[in-house]
Design goal:
The protein contains five helices and seven strands.
């Protein structure tokens, strides 16, 4: 399912950002983990914040739960399964990509790696894309997952912004979300806004605009 969010373009030239969030995927069930899960409300706050204060960006939210496990036997003569074709096309059409990921075993989650691998099959859909990462976790806020994702991105010609770094400790006071899952922490909102603005600027620079 893709939920497309249209944002007004009042002050800056618009770009399209694909937002990939991976917590709901059935390949790794975090619902059994209690306090260790990736908070479900985190998946919405980039869109929420964009609606409030970041103009000129169209964010398209992508869930990747229907992607099969990577299997090159499923590829035909330059073709892929329909779900994979749709996903790859979304990546190709995007100006940039925003990854949202928790941290598992000092690394990125397996479903995200599966999606990255499918889009990397020749021709590489990730090539020359600007990208940013937001992560959440315990004390490190998912920084080790970000480090590994950046290593993967180097080989695939994904160009990540280096600053600002967004690693959110969702369990550390003060509370980041209200009881309904809305992002309420002013400092966190401002940090996320800085990430989106930096990604926007970097995307235009790569495109020569």
């Amino acid at each position: 399912m893709v939920d497309s969010i249209q944002l007004s373009q009042e002050s800056v030239k618009g770009i399209e950002i694909e937002y990939i969030e991976i917590d709901r995927l059935p390949l790794l069930n975090t619902d059994l983990e209690g306090q260790g899960t990736f908070p479900p409300e985190v998946e919405d706050f980039p869109i929420q914040l964009s609606q409030e204060s970041v103009k000129g960006i169209e964010i398209e939210y992508i869930e990747i739960d229907r992607l099969p496990l990577l299997n090159t036997d499923l590829e035909g003569q330059g073709t892929f399964p329909p779900e994979v074709e749709d996903f790859r096309q979304k990546i190709k059409e995007a100006d940039s990509v925003l990854f949202a990921s928790p941290e598992y075993n000092f690394s990125l989650a397996a479903p995200l790696k599966n999606a990255i691998d499918w889009a990397s099959r020749p021709p590489n859909a990730w090539a020359n894309k600007a990208a940013a990462i937001i992560s959440t976790g315990g004390s490190g806020g998912g920084e080790r997952a970000q480090y590994h994702l950046r290593q993967v991105g180097v080989f695939l010609d994904i160009h990540f912004i280096n600053k600002p770094l967004f690693c959110l400790n969702a369990f550390e006071p003060p509370a980041k979300f209200d009881k309904d899952g809305n992002l309420v922490n002013a400092e966190t909102k401002e940090r996320l806004k800085e990430v989106l603005l930096a990604l926007h600027e970097f995307t235009l620079r790569i495109q020569g605009k």
